[in-house]
Write a structure and sequence with these properties.
Number of strands: 14
Strand order of the largest sheet: 1-12-3-5-2-4
Largest sheet: 6 strands, mixed
Number of domains: 4
Strand content: 5-15%
Low-confidence stretches: none
Number of helices: 26
Length: 588
């Protein structure tokens, strides 16, 4: 079945169809952005009968691809918006520019070379346009003038061209381009103004044949995608021809296809996004993340419940297969389950989006919750979910190939919970002990994950004696603290890979971290004890909540401290993953 046809169409017919609403824009198209200079160049090409490239249209009428449409800039319908027969996929900037300048009776709102808003009318000089010695592209043959139709110099003090009345247009022999398809009345009055001037009559006859008739006869090649073209192909085609460089997201495309009646996907998402942002850990959740979760649940439903020959997936092509009823069937449940995922993450001491090891793993978690329903509240099942989650973090399972991992994890975790085998994410996940010394910044998912585990262990602020969670609730600013300060470590000749890795880091409130400064541990711990009247025994207990051995801390024994804490942190990882860390043969 043919999915596209090609044919030339007269410009006048295209502009008439735009005016009547037969041709409109799919809602995912961006706004018209061309500036005055580009408009003038386009008009020059058309008036010279030079090609301006082909256009691409989409034939409407496919029930599976019903895009919400809008008219081009400058079009206002007196009654209800008509149903378009064609939608512009490529050529909006050119067609809008041509409509506004050649057919619209309104001043063109555009921008100048400095990107400032301006309003312009467009004219062509009759005498220059027919002069064979003048290059139309190089001289002021085709010009634009301000809204008042007066071109000035010297900061507006001197008027160099005044076209503010019809008589001044006739006098200056400047033809308004928005009269090109209805020029007879202007032409009659032009002849009347010049009375019996034979030379002027001949000039206009030549102008009529060389410019007006050329523009009226101008044709543009049109590639039309037929109503049989699938949605995903339309999306791909649009991206291929979209020279603006901004990728078309599936959310924008679905916004266009879902729109009908009172429902608008963009407005629906705004409400959901506002609710999700109430959970700090979800504040960076994107609309495409939400659509992926909905698609995972929908495709799982098709495979497992309706036994349809489909695969569980959340790739772009699968999201594009969502229809409005699918979205309405699953969106509320997925929304609820994203919030359940946020609560689980908070319980695991992941409080903010910046602390989330992988932004995409909550997508799978929300989908799994949506499928499990109330079953997910069972403590044994919760323990399994957490084991899967931490294996994903420390096994680096969501570092790449996210869509594939999501599609595998959702059914495999459900199957595991129902008595099946462990999911691949658990079986394949490994954490090599030596990797812990490479965790130095938040760029690493494992770094963020281990900070959460340290917080879970119950680390207390040296001074406030409060947990990380309580400190956050109290409004304290939390910082990642070098246990053996950098200044002291550098002075001792320690390497950055030793003092700057996570083995030497923990949580403290900002005031406490500032108080520590660059002093040796043996010194700053005594300063804190004295300043805040904390006994040595109390302080030792607080140190232990950070997995710090007080005796080596108080004697500034960095090497012993490092080995002991490294071993303790690896124990936290083992417990979270439910499997031992890997020690290469060279390690003990």
């Amino acid at each position: 079945m043919t999915t596209f046809i090609t044919s030339p169409v007269r410009l006048q017919q295209l502009l008439n169809d735009i005016q009547t609403g037969n041709i409109q824009l799919p809602d995912f198209q961006r706004s018209w952005v061309w500036n005055d200079e580009r408009i003038c160049k386009l008009l020059t090409s058309v008036s010279s009968s030079h090609p301006i490239g082909s256009l691409m249209m989409l034939e409407t009428g496919n029930p599976d691809v019903e895009f919400y449409s809008r008219p081009l800039k400058g079009i206002k319908f007196s009654n209800e918006q008509p149903k378009a027969t064609q939608l512009i996929l490529d050529g909006q900037q050119r067609l809008t520019s041509l409509f506004l300048t050649l057919l619209s009776e309104q001043v063109v709102e555009t921008k100048d070379e400095q990107d400032k808003d301006v309003k312009r009318w467009y004219y062509i000089d009759i005498e220059k346009a027919i002069d064979p010695n003048i290059e139309r592209e190089d001289e002021d043959v085709l010009i634009s003038v301000p809204e008042n139709k007066k071109k000035t110099s010297n900061f507006g003090k001197n008027i160099i061209l005044d076209l503010s009345t019809s008589e001044l247009e006739y006098k200056n022999k400047m033809f308004p381009l928005n009269k090109i398809f209805k020029h007879y009345e202007w032409e009659r009055k032009y002849y009347k103004f010049w009375k019996d001037d034979e030379k002027t009559f001949k000039e206009f006859d030549e102008f009529n044949s060389k410019i007006i008739e050329i523009i009226k006869a101008y044709q543009i090649p049109i590639i039309t995608l037929t109503k049989y073209t699938p949605k995903e192909a339309i999306c791909q085609v649009f991206e291929n021809v979209n020279t603006g460089g901004v990728p078309l997201t599936v959310f924008e495309l679905l916004t266009a296809t879902f729109a009908s009646g009172e429902f608008q996907l963009r407005e629906d998402w705004k409400k959901r996004e506002k609710e999700l942002k109430k959970h700090s850990v979800l504040e960076n959740t994107k609309n495409t993340d939400f659509l992926q979760a909905v698609t995972l649940v929908k495709t799982y439903h098709l495979v497992k419940i309706e036994q349809k020959p489909s695969s569980i997936s959340c790739k772009r092509k699968d999201i594009l297969k969502l229809n409005r009823s699918d979205y309405e069937d699953y969106a509320d449940k997925v929304m609820e389950c994203f919030e359940k995922a946020a609560k689980l993450l908070k319980n695991e001491k992941i409080f903010y989006s910046r602390d989330l090891p992988y932004q995409t793993q909550p997508i799978a978690l929300a989908a799994i919750y949506a499928i499990l329903g109330d079953l997910a509240d069972n403590d044994d099942i919760k323990a399994k979910l957490l084991r899967w989650y931490w294996c994903g973090v420390f096994g680096k399972m969501y570092g790449s190939g996210t869509e594939t991992r999501l599609a595998k994890d959702v059914p495999q975790v459900i199957n595991w919970i129902n008595g099946g085998n462990e999911p691949d994410t658990i079986q394949e996940a490994n954490f090599v002990a030596s990797q812990i010394e490479e965790l130095c910044t938040r760029n690493s998912a494992a770094y963020k994950g281990l900070l959460a585990l340290i917080s879970q262990y119950g680390c207390l602020d040296y001074v406030k004696n409060s947990t990380v969670e309580q400190s956050i609730i109290d409004g304290a600013s939390m910082e990642i603290h070098h246990i053996f300060p950098q200044k002291w470590a550098k002075g001792k000749g320690l390497l950055p890979k030793q003092y700057d890795c996570i083995v030497n880091k923990t949580h403290l409130t900002k005031p406490t971290n500032t108080k520590v400064g660059g002093h040796a541990p043996s010194k700053h711990i005594n300063i804190l004890q004295a300043s805040y009247i904390v006994s040595e025994e109390e302080m030792d207990e607080r140190l232990r909540t950070h997995l710090i051995e007080p005796s080596v801390f108080r004697t500034d024994d960095f090497e012993t401290f490092f080995d002991k804490r490294k071993f303790a942190l690896l124990g936290l990882i083992e417990k979270a993953m439910g499997k031992p860390v890997v020690y290469p043969s060279s390690q003990s």
